[in-house]
Amino acid sequence: MSKIKNQKSKVGEVSIDYVARLANLPLTSAEKKTFAKQLGDVLGYFSKLSEVDTAKVEPTGHITGLTNVVRGDQTAPSITQQEALSNAPRTYNVFFEVEAIFEEQS
Amino acid sequence: MIDVTTLTLKEVSTLLSKKQIKAQELNGSFLDRAHKLNKKLNSFIAITDDVAIKQAKKVDELIADNQKLNPLAGIPIAFKDLFSTKGIRTTAGSKVLENYVPVYDATSVTRLKDVSAVIIGKTNLDAWGHGSSGENSDFGPTLNPYDLTRVPGGSSSGSAVAVASGACLAATGTDTGGSIRLPAAFCNLIGLKPTYGRVSRYGIIAMASSLDSIGHLTKTVYDNALVLNVTAGVDEFDSTTSTQKFEDYTKDIEKGVQGLRIGLPKEYFEKLDPKIKDSVISAVKTLAKLGATVIDDSLPHTEYGVSTYYIIQPSEVSSNLARYDSIRFGFGREKFGPEAKRRIILGTYTLSAGYYDAYYLKAMKVRRLIRQDFEKVFKKVDVLILPTSPTLPFNLGEKVDDPLTMYLSDIFTVPINLAGVPSLNVPCGFINNLPIGMQIVGPDFSEKLLYQVGYAYEQETKWYQNKPKL
Amino acid sequence: MNYKPVIGLEVHIELSTQSKMFCRCSADYFGAKPNTHTCPVCLGLPGAMPKANKLAIEFVQKLGFALKCQPQLSSKFDRKSYFYPDLPKGFQISQFDLPFSQKGHLEIRTGDQIKKIGITRTHLEEDTGKLSHATINGKRVTLIDFNRSGVPLMEVVSEPEMQSATEAKAYSQKLQQIVRYLGISDADMEKGSMRIEPNVSLRKSGDKKLPNYKIELKNINSFRFAERAINYEIERQIQILESGKIPHQETRGWDEKNNRTVSQRSKELSYDYRYFPEPDLPSFNFDQEYFTKLQSQIPELPDQKVKRLLRNYQISEGEAILICQDKNLADFFEETVKVYKGSPKKIVNWITGELLRRLNETNQSIRDINLLPAQLAELLFMTDQNKITNATAKDVFEKMIQNGKSASELISELDLTLISQKELEKTTETVIKNNQKAVADFKNGKKESLDFLIGQTQRLTKGKANPALVRQLLLDKLES
Question: To the nearest 10°, the Cα dihedral for B284, B286, B292, B296?
Answer without folding.
Answer: 20
